Amino acid sequence: MKITDDPTPIKLVKLPDNSAAESRPEGPSPAHRKDRVSLSLQARELLKAQKALAAIPDVRADKVEAIKARIADGTYRIDSEQIAAKMIREALSDDE
Fold it and tell me: Of 17, 33, 48, 95, which shows the fewest CB atoms inside 10 Å?
C-alpha cells in the first residue's frame, strides 16, 4: 500500500435513513406470533411406537416368578449344549 500526500477531497454520499422502515417488520409483531410445529406421518408413527414400547414392562414378572419357583423346587435345568450351540450360531451370524 502506498500512502501519498494527495490533497484530493473525498466526496461523501449520504444514504437515505431506512432505520425506521427496518424497525417495523410487516405482519404481526414477534410478541403476537406463535410458533408452530408440524410432524410428518412417519414421525407421528414413531412417536406412537415409542409410547407403546414405554408401556411394556422391562421385566416379565410372570416368567421370572415361574423360573424362581422351578429353581426353588429343584426342577429348573439348564441345557449347556443347547446354550453353546446357540452362542456359536449367533457368533457365526454376526461375522456376516
Answer: 95
